[in-house]
Amino acid sequence: MGMNICGGSIIHHQWVLTAAHCLYRSKDPKAYSVKVGVQHISEDGTELSVTHIAIHEDFNNLISQDIALLKLGDSISWSPLIQPVCLPTPKLKPSLGSMCWVIGWARTDTKVTPQPSYSLQEVAVKIINKKICHQQYKFLFLKDQKKFIGNDMMCAASQWGMDMCQGKSGNSLVCQVNKTWIQMGVMSWSFSCNQHRFPGLYTSTSHFTKWIKKQISDVRFVSRAGPAFLSPVFLTSCILLLSLGSLWLL
Question: Which family is this protein grouped under (predicted)?
Fold first, then answer.
């Protein structure tokens, strides 16, 4: 087993959704594998080879268009703990102020020695205006750069003083619609631990519905938007195992 580099979400029997920048080390599918069905990185689980990598054609190693798909060599067998996550249609987007959750691989405490291994975590976040993100991150702008966060991105701020320390890129931003968990975003970038005034940046999945459909013809999308998002519920460890995979560099 090699090095764990990113998280990802299972959206199909043979496809995993993740962030494009996770794959900067190599574009060779043989360099990666995906582990599913575990709650801690150190646990043994089902390990699947990657046979094809689809990176958005407009991704240029910056934040914009930060989305990728991995095709697995073998189909994933569904179980009570391994199921695909739902994806939104182009018009299904969380409104400002909606409460959602980031779930995925992270360390809860980086100050202890030895550091704990990555495990599946969840943290409540609130969808906020991108103008706030723009203001908070403007010190990172390149010279003459007027726009840092494009229409394909979302911003979300952690709630209740919680933090997902050293969370993996590619983790899932999920919101509950009509009692259905839908992945609205892919973790692209966030600041270091305990920097609560810096919101997380996420690739909007609804923005890339057509692109995903182009890569996977039989993937399904959810369009049943209710009048408002339901109040968040604490995700159990069982729910956390659903739809999540871990990307490894071999």
Answer: Belongs to the peptidase S1 family. CLIP subfamily.
Of residues 21, 98, 204, 243, which has the active-site annotation? 21
**What contacts 194, CB < 8 A, 6 or more positions away?**
163, 165
- Give the ranges where the chain is alpha helix by DSSP (H): 130-136, 209-215, 237-241
| The pair of three-digit structure tokens given for residue 4, joined into one six-digit string | 């764990």
Taking the C-alpha atoms of residue 103 and residue 7, their distance in angstroms, rounded to an integer, is: 10
| Superfamily designation of domain 3-72 | Trypsin-like serine proteases (2.40.10.10)
pLDDT of residue 235: 32
Residue type, 186: V
Where are the domains positioned within the chain? 3-72, 87-235
- What's the average pLDDT block by block, 10 residues per block, for the chain (250 residues)? 80 93 90 83 80 94 89 89 87 93 71 59 89 80 66 86 62 88 89 66 94 86 44 31 58
E-strand stretches of 139-198: 153-158, 172-177, 180-189
| Tally of CA atoms within 13 A in the half-sphere of 46 that contains its CB | 17
The C-alpha angle with vertex 209 and arms to 141 and 227, in degrees rounded to 5, equals: 95
Fold of 87-235: Thrombin, subunit H (2.40.10)
Catalytic annotation on 58? no
Query: 33, 66, 98, 246: which one is catalytic?
Result: 66
Helix spans in 65-162 (H) = 130-136
Is 218 among the catalytic positions? no
Q: Is 87-235 the same fold as 3-72? A: yes
Does the active-site annotation cover 206? no
Catalytic residue among 169, 172, 188, 246: 169
pTM, two decimal places: 0.84
In the DSSP assignment, the letter for residue 13 is T
